[in-house]
């Protein structure tokens, strides 16, 4: 299968992976041929990338980060508990939060179990989901990225459990923000931006009152928008005043935001998002954390078309863990002409590099 930008899809191609909603129900199944109406609808739904069938790459299949069953369970758990928190009156919030925390602790443990037995690099582009609320999917993605980072940084199981809880709840304060502001397609006014910024303070105040949860979890919500040089919010704290978990979640939060399709901009590919993180090293983000993150994630998703420095073109067919900038490529073209497909391992062929990526047919 091949990873293709939705805006470049031609009529007649077939889906290689189904499109699901956040309850795990299939909206468009694999094998379905896409006509102009379906393609238009996919564009309207802000889906940036799809996996399509291709006879020379149909055996290429990306591995999920966590099982479909666990992802479905996680999304339903986040949605249910966040909505209960949103709908609870102020006096009831601490009780509702305590119940949610207990549920989330179990969920984090299950996610950790799967991540720690996963021998693959972490890639969240391999599944195409449509979500009713971006906060739910973002909370899960940030949790997975944060835990992947924590595993790479060799945090203990207890530390990972606290980090995971902080990550899954980092945006809980946004449940008090009107959806018309959160999902606004145009530029926010200064007043609207100030309302958005307040979610870090709101989340902290919600979480610090939950006596069954470490106070550090509340500080994850408080600090995930702080930056090393003091340019963040809500307090503008700097350097080591920001807790390690706040720094980890900051990187995971920004990366997922950049690589997710939003109403106001198109998603970027992982290597493009990582370049943006690197420009902020030692000013916005901790260098050690960004470098550990690079080792943890897929930079060039399986199925992506790439151009190599020797003039060959092909599809990423497998990943090399620990050397994610050097995957295994199935070469399909050389010097502008099609060739009998063969594999080229960039871990072995060190003189050859990826010079470009395409999401067009």
Automatic annotation (TrEMBL):
Residues 113-309 form the HD-GYP domain. InterPro entries: HD/PDEase_dom, HD_GYP_dom, HDIG_dom. CDD domains: HDc. Gene3D superfamilies: Hypothetical protein af1432. SMART domains: HDc. Pfam families: HD_5. This is HD-GYP domain-containing protein. It comes from Niallia nealsonii. The lineage of its organism: Bacteria, Bacillati, Bacillota, Bacilli, Bacillales.
């Amino acid at each position: 299968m091949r990873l293709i930008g939705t805006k470049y899809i031609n009529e007649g191609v077939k889906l290689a992976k189904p499109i699901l909603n956040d309850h795990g129900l299939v909206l468009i199944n694999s094998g379905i041929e896409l006509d102009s109406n379906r393609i238009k609808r996919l564009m309207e739904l802000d889906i940036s990338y799809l996996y399509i069938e291709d006879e020379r790459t149909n055996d290429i299949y990306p591995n999920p980060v966590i099982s479909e069953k666990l992802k479905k369970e996680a999304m339903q758990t986040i949605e249910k508990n966040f909505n209960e928190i949103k709908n609870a009156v102020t006096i009831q919030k601490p009780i509702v939060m305590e119940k949610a925390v207990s549920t989330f602790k179990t969920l984090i443990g299950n996610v950790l179990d799967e991540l720690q037995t996963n021998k693959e690099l972490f890639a969240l582009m391999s599944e195409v989901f449509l979500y009713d609320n971006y906060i739910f999917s973002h909370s899960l993605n940030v949790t997975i990225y944060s835990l992947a980072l924590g595993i790479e940084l060799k945090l203990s199981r207890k530390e990972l459990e606290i980090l995971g809880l902080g990550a899954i709840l980092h945006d809980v304060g946004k449940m008090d923000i009107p959806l018309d502001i959160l999902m606004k397609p145009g530029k926010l006014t200064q007043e609207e931006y100030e309302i958005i910024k307040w979610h870090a303070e709101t989340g902290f105040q919600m979480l610090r009152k939950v006596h069954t949860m470490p106070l550090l979890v509340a500080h994850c919500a408080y600090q995930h928008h702080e930056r090393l040089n003091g340019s963040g919010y809500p307090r503008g704290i700097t350097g080591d005043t920001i807790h390690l978990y706040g720094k980890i979640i900051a990187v995971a939060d920004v990366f997922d935001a950049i690589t997710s399709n939003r109403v106001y901009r198109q998603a970027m590919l992982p290597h493009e998002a990582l370049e943006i993180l690197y420009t902020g090293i030692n000013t916005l983000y901790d260098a050690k954390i960004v470098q550990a993150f690079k080792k943890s994630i897929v930079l060039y998703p399986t199925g992506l078309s790439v151009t190599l420095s020797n003039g060959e073109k092909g599809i990423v067919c497998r990943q090399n863990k620990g050397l994610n900038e050097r995957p295994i490529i199935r070469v399909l073209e050389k010097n502008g002409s099609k060739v009998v497909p063969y594999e080229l391992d960039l871990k072995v062929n060190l003189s050859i590099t990826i010079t470009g990526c395409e999401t067009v047919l």
